[in-house]
Design goal:
Order of helices and strands: HHHHHHH
Radius of gyration: 16 Å
Number of helices: 7
Number of strands: 0
Distance between the termini: 46 Å
Strand content: under 5%
Helix content: 55-70%
Length: about 150
């Protein structure tokens, strides 16, 4: 019997989709990994016929590298009750905070708001709308995490 829950599977699939999007799309990612687009799509698909297809560890690492953020690996860590911390977090000197950081954060927050409002127009949110909201939220979280590194003491 598997110990991974349906919710954890959906979270991993959402993170996989977010990594693809952050990296520029699943079609471009095919050129950088061992899998074809059809297989990569199954790893992010919430359709019942693809519910057992989860991204292999090596492909997840490649996707996170491509996305320039440990989106999938972070979802895996959360499923185990852990969180990731950059390896050089204690030694690194963060870059200076800039106006661009504030604009990026605001733009990402507006993207979350836009997708949420679109999803709520008909009074209910379907799987695709929730997936789009999750993707935008992952981008917002990534931007916020980068800002946190810059303002930490």
């Amino acid at each position: 019997m598997r110990t991974i829950s349906d919710e954890e599977i959906r979270s991993l699939k959402g993170a996989t989709d977010a990594a693809y999007r952050l990296g520029g799309g699943v079609t471009s990612f095919e050129l950088l990994t061992r899998c074809k687009v059809s297989t990569l799509s199954k790893y992010a698909s919430l359709n019942s016929e693809n519910e057992t297809f989860l991204i292999p560890v090596d492909v997840a690492i490649e996707a996170d590298r491509w996305a320039k953020s440990p989106v999938i690996v972070s979802a895996m860590a959360r499923a185990l009750g852990y969180r990731l911390v950059p390896a050089d977090a204690d030694e690194a000197t963060p870059a200076a905070l800039t106006e661009r950081d504030a604009h990026d954060l605001l733009n990402d927050a507006m993207d979350v708001t836009r997708e949420t409002l679109i999803a709520m127009e008909d009074g209910k949110t379907d799987a695709l709308e929730r997936k789009r909201i999750r993707t935008e939220l992952m981008e917002l979280v990534r931007t916020a995490q980068l800002m946190l590194l810059k303002v930490r003491e």
